[in-house]
Structure formats: C-alpha cells, structure tokens
Predict the structure.
Amino acid sequence: MNYWGYLLEGLGVAIGIIAGIVVAIVLQKIINWKKEQQKVKNLIFELQMNIKKIDDLLEETQKYRNAVNADNLSIYHGYFDLSKYIWGTALDMLKSGLLYKYLSLEQIERLQYMSSELSIYSGNYMNNQLQGFKVNFDKVKAILAIDFWESKFKEDKKNLIEIRDKLG
C-alpha cells in the first residue's frame, strides 16, 4: 500500500476544496461591493433628480409670489406637484441597513422627514391652502404661506445637496 500517495492525494483534494471556498467568498464579496456601489450611485441620481424638482418648486413659488404681489391671484394657474419625488433606493438602503454605513443618523432622519413631507398628501394640503387665497384673498396670509413653503423647499434642497455631496 502506498500511504504517502493517498495522503498526498487527500491533501490535494483538501487544498482544492479550501481554495474553491476562498475563491467563492472573495467573488461574493466583490459582487456585493459592486451592488453596494451601484446602490450608492442610484441614490445620488435620485437625490439629484429631487434637487431638480425642488428647483422647479422654488420657481413655482416665485410665480405664486408675483401673482400675490400683483394683488391678482386669478392670474396664477400653477400647481405644486409634491407627488413626483423618488425615494425608492433610499428606502431600500434604509431597510437593508446600508444607509447607516454612509450617512449620519441626523441625515437619515432628514431624508425620512423629507420623504414624508414631499408627498401627494403634503402637495394636496399646500395646493388647497394656496388656492384658498384665491377665494378669500388675504395678501399678508398668502405671503406668509408662500414664505413658509419656500423656506421649507430651500431647507430640503440644502439637505439633499449635503447628503448627495457626502455620498460622492
């Protein structure tokens, strides 16, 4: 009997199995890292889109303000669409815990707040409030209301830019 031959053959098999496991683990880590990087890129893209949408809202606030200052809200026919914001990747990353790796708790809280604030429900409230001034025109209240919304949008934009810049 050739015990050394069997021993070397068994050792070769064991080394092959270990090498296969190591290669599988390394490949899985690389795949996970690439997926994670793609999620971060997707989140940056979503944040950039939301920043652009906030710019559109700020432009709309100026149109509303101009109509109020002209004492003629009947010329304003705009709409504040707060329902078109994208939060899919952010919510997915929050659920998986990946967001905690890249953002502070304060930034995550701000994202959560903005995702609920920039919604169809807030949009309906805002539009109903501002359109109500067409029926009962009160210049001071209308200006205070648009000032409030404009300051919220500016703060949201600042927060989104800060988060986007932190991600990359």
